[in-house]
Amino acid sequence: MEVPAEGESIQIHSYKHNGRIHRVWQETTVLKGTRNIVIGGNERTLVTESDGRTWLTREPSIVYFHAEHWFNIICMLREDGVYYYCNISSPFVYSNEVLKYIDYDLDVKVFPDMSYTLLDEDEFEEHKRQMGYPDVIDQILYRNVDKLIGWIQQRKGPFAPDFIEVWTNRYQFHKRYRIRE
Fold it and tell me: Where in the numbering of this chain does the DUF402 domain appear (predicted)?
């Protein structure tokens, strides 16, 4: 299995269960790449939606992907604190400088005080019917919602107190290094 190298610039591709592209992040700097974990950083990166619309991300973000968990986490660094947007998704795969995953609609938004809310259950139910998610997927996804909420409550992984500082510093280092090249 390919592993992205630290400092490498990769794209992130989000798909839907039916195999169609959902969203593409043009550029993310790899801060850590192993068989199981990819941590990246990006800021003002171009995002292309499935309908061709584009937009730029507004704030610096640290992204966290795991090859064994059915969620990924975007840590958005805003003036009033860190907000987390957690996608319930397939584990990632990485190939040819592209990190790929399937987005399953359910999202958990986490606020700086670590309160959280589950989003898009109606969209999940609609897509589940439209795309015929099997029952086993439904069970896996809700089990991973529970696991993610456990991580939030236990301040584990990207929710740990020092996670943002460590990876933001690493991202700033790579930004400075890239500017000098």
Answer: 18-156
Known binding-site positions for Mg(2+): 87, 103, 105, 107, 120, 123
Q: Which residues are annotated as a binding site?
A: 87, 103, 105, 107, 120, 123
Q: Which residues are part of the catalytic machinery? A: 23
Domains for the chain: give ranges and CATH numbers. 9-169 (2.40.380.10)
Read off the pLDDT band of 177 (50, 70, 90): confident
Mean pLDDT computed over 74-85: 98
